[in-house]
Amino acid sequence: MTTHEYLCRLYAGFLGMNIGIRLGAPVEPSQWTSERIQRFYGDIHGYVKQFKNFAADDDANGPVFFLRALQDKPQHTTLQASDVAEAWLNYAREGVGMFWWGGYGVSTEHTAYLNLKAGIPAPESGSIAINGKTLAEQIGGQIFIDTWGFLFPDDCKKAADHARMAASVSHDGDGLEGAAFIAAAIAKAFATDDIDAILDAACAQIQSDCTYAKVVGAVRDFHREHPDNWRDCLAYLQKNWGYDRYPGVCHIIPNAGVCIMALLYGRTLSRAVEIATMAGWDTDCNAGNVGSILGVAGNLAAVEEHYRAPLQDILVLSGISGYLNIMDIPSYCKELAALSLKVRNLPVGQELLQKEGEINFDFSLPGSIHGFRVSNPNACSLRNEHGELTMLYDRMVRPQACRLYYKPFYRRSDFDDERYMPVFSPTVYPGQTVSLRYRLEKFSGESVLISSYVRNTTTAEIIPLASEVVYDQEWHDVIFTIESDHPKLKNAMIDEIGLLFEANSPAKNRDFGVLHLSHFSVTGKSRYTIDLAQQVKEFASITPFSHNHGAWDLVKDAAGLSWMEAMTLDHAEAMTGNYYTKDVEVAGKLIVHYGTSAFVGLRIQGARRGCYGGFHQGQVGIFMHQHGRLVPLAVREASPELERQYVLTFKAEGRKLALEIEGLGTFEAMDNPYDYGMVGYALYANGRVGFGNLQVKEF
């Protein structure tokens, strides 16, 4: 298998997983039964609900964020359950998003999280000994592990071992068998599309006498005797392997039966995810798992357009980083492929190298569109042709127009619901440089006007930055910087960036043709200010921040200035910006109304890692947050004066940290362990603090 074929199969598997999740999510239990699904939707052959954008889902969050344990691990060290546990604690906002926070002893994941937080290490955190058999054997064991199968093509043992280890943070018993089985099935699918061969390989990675192996065998036996009607098999499962026999909210065994049934009776990606959805029980989980397996097995040819197109090559997540929550699927699949080659000690080719913190879309993966969309779908449509993004513009006349754009920021109005409460920080900022290349292929018409543009999310204003009347059909290279001092972009967040296409022909000679885009990139250092007067509260957070703990609100002082105010009993944090920001200077204002702790932060890597400058319990200076502990790096004794406004400027350059607090002097530290991270504000003790506009300048 060549690297390109591996990448295409991985891409197909990741698309298949998210097709299954999106298809199954609207009819997820407990009130949706198979009978109700059949009554209202009949024999499903497409998405049962249309979404502006599909909001975050736990089945997508887990495979992405728990795998970051491997990405965060130093080279040449063995990955352990404790590393995955650290990812749980670092990338989740407690009680919000990521997974179902259903309560201790009710939700397996919530229980494991609280165990970890209380100091119970993994794998004890997910063990039967501590949590009991019922809780440890819920479905989560197999729904968060797809990426481990993607990493180890045709190496079922390594895929199963890694999945078992990762799942042990929260599960045990048959929960671990399910993790090993699904990951092994995904791994085997890289080598064959024979369902029986895939199931045989997966069965070889689990204990032959476990309940999971028994339900797999039972469904396979039933299929051999009754190969024609999957509903007969579902009736058999409901009678002999149903929720009435396996307690808890969502036990793994009944759902394992549905996955095997969907694979055997579906055979193809589309039909299998449809069967898994129509069967009821945990619809998005089951459809997601079988979508991963059959996406890999069938390659991109198996991913039908009516399921693929609505995904738009983007995935919305709900982790702690608003930047990481906006995922471009093709770029992520390249990142996964590179990680796979690295852990397998194989060379990583140039085509897989992605520079963290930058956007670089080359449209090389078949069918990829990298999240691009059009504002006028009646006149224009998108597709990938021979490694280029193409926009068909169909007989347009002056003054018709269409925007071809990428969305680097999302708002509440972009969604139909609030599943798992996603929060966002932009992936494009003022100060950065945009580079793209386009040409026209004209069928009729003389000239069109093409402008590079961005959109201000606060005013919703389209702001052209460079325009040209195009007569020819040659390639045009466009490079421009998003000026931070542009009068219409002052302190603005950007939620669209791309090309504005304006027809320029009269009705008798309509503009008809294809716009080709060969690449699109956004690079360089950002320079921006988060103006709190322009922000609003959405998804229970203040744009563009994600909050972990505390109560946050926007307030105005007596002078009419906007502040972001936080109250907390123990800890509250607001983080934003590019997750991979390196050398940077951040400046902000704060007023302590009550308490002794208030910080500006940089190189924040989540809930457990970051650098902070400010006040904390009788000390002032530079602190490091490391794995739940706040460590002073360069401090002296001092407490904040209540109701006094402090101006803080905090700078990171290489390993050096420098803090200046107006009226209190400067501090320096040289032992910062973090290379990159977000920026923001925080309190690490009981208090109420107001925070002002945040200025960010990369260098």
Tell me what you see in this structure:
The chain is of the alpha+beta class and 699 residues long. It has three domains: 3-316, ADP-ribosylglycohydrolase fold (Orthogonal Bundle), CATH 1.10.4080.10; 373-524, Jelly Rolls; 528-698, Jelly Rolls (Sandwich). The protein is built from 20 helices and 30 strands. The strands form six sheets. Strands 14, 18, 19, 21, 26, 27, 28 and 30 form an eight-stranded antiparallel sheet that branches. A seven-stranded antiparallel sheet has the order 17-20-29-22-23-24-25, with no helix packed on it.
Query: Which class best fits the helix and strand makeup?
Result: alpha+beta
The proportion of residues in beta strands is 25-35%
CATH topology heading of the largest domain: ADP-ribosylglycohydrolase fold
The gross shape turns out to be globular
Instruction: Count all strands and give the number.
Output: 30
Level-2 CATH architecture of the largest domain: Orthogonal Bundle
How large, in whole angstroms, is the Cα Rg? 26 Å
Q: Report how far apart the termini are.
A: 42 Å
Helix content: 25-40%
The count of domains is: 3
Q: Give the low-confidence spans.
A: none
Average pLDDT confidence is 96
Count of helix runs: 20
Largest sheet: 8 strands, antiparallel
Would you identify the CATH H-level superfamily of the largest domain?
ADP-ribosylation/Crystallin J1
- Name of the top-level CATH class of the largest domain: Mainly Alpha
